[in-house]
Write a structure and sequence with these properties.
This protein has 132 residues and is mostly helical. Helix content is 79%, strand content 0%.
Length: 132
């Protein structure tokens, strides 16, 4: 489980890093209005995005080494995910290509489900004495 969590969350960090660094090769795969939208995001939001993906990756690493701090890292990631989700859902300037319609909603639900499941898993592993 921890290995799969690491791969899943490493991709989230890669997506963040390539987006924040404005990798032209990476961003070429996205619609132009999405790339333009990224330029309008406030800097503080990138901090929460980084906390979301970084906390999740850290939680995965802490699971791999069986650290009792894994649940705290996953909880931090949920704070980042919550803030970025609320911002995106309340932003009236969000282009349709960014929200993704039904596919975007499904992806968002999958991300939330995985994030919550990882927190619950880490808490159970700590209660079972597997995380020290």
């Amino acid at each position: 489980m921890a290995g799969l969590a690491f791969v899943w969350n490493a991709y989230g960090c890669l997506d963040f890093a390539l987006t924040a660094a404005r990798s032209s090769a990476y961003l070429a795969a996205f619609p132009p209005d999405y790339v333009a939208y990224l330029d309008t995001l406030p800097l503080w939001l990138f901090g929460y995005w980084a906390a979301g993906v970084g906390g999740a990756l850290l939680g995965s690493v802490l699971l791999l080494v069986r650290s009792r701090w894994a649940p705290a890292a996953f909880a931090l990631s949920l704070v980042g995910l919550l803030v970025t989700t609320l911002y995106q859902r309340s932003d009236e300037t969000l282009p349709a290509s960014v929200s993704g319609g039904l596919a975007g909603l499904v992806l968002s639900l999958v991300i939330w489900t995985v994030a919550l499941a990882l927190l619950v898993f880490a808490l159970r592993m700590r209660r079972a004495g597997i995380l020290r």
